Every structure is written in structure tokens, then in C-alpha cells.
Amino acid sequence: MMKLMTLAALATLALAPAAQAQEGVRVSLVGKSSAQIHADIVAAAKKVCAKAVTGESLLLDAYGRCMKGSVSSALGQLGSADVARLEAMRLAQR
Q1: Beta carbons within 10 angstroms of residue 8's beta carbon
Q2: CA-to-CA distance for 68 and 18, rounded, in angstroms?
């Protein structure tokens, strides 16, 4: 498994100014459970997306799209079925 992962907010490219679109947050995976990794990915996406959607007229819609895209991108990079299952459960609870 990877020891360190960068959550790149690829989904925010259309939403964010060029300077913010290049931002990312590193998520350490060392010694963490699937639940901890999932929580860290969601927290990192929140941090990136909060900055990326500043000034959007439809803030909640833009934030939701950013979160979905960012978390999906991170899960794709990670490739863990356990963490993906946790995300599916989180979305189902909404």
C-alpha cells in the first residue's frame, strides 16, 4: 500500500482559480485503518473544496460536486475496496 497520497482536487479545475486548482493536500496512510484513511480523505477534500469554491454563486452545489469528485479521485488513486465501501456507506446515509 502507498505510504503517502496526495488528494488533488481535479474536480475543482473548472471551479477554482488557477492558483487554487493546483493545490492539494497530502494524506498519510502509514499505520492507519481503512476507517481512519477514509476520514482523512474526506477531511482533506473538505479543506480543498472549501477553498476552491470560494466566491461561487451556487456555493452548496459547487461544494457538493467538488467533494464528490475529489473523494472519487482519491479513492481511485488509493485503489482500496475497503475504503471505497466506507465511502459508499457514507453516501448512502446522506
Answers
A1: 18
A2: 20
Which three cell numbers mark 31? 499505520
pLDDT per position as a tens digit, 35-76: 999 999 999 888 888 888 888 788 888 898 888 888 988 888
Neighbours of 71 (CB within 10 A): 24
Query: Using CA atoms, how far apart are residues 27 and 41, in angstroms rounded to an integer?
Result: 7
Residue 17, all three cell numbers: 482559480
- Residue 88: how many CB atoms within 10 A of its CB? 11
Instruction: Indicate the pLDDT class of residue 16, thresholds 50, 70 and 90.
Output: very low
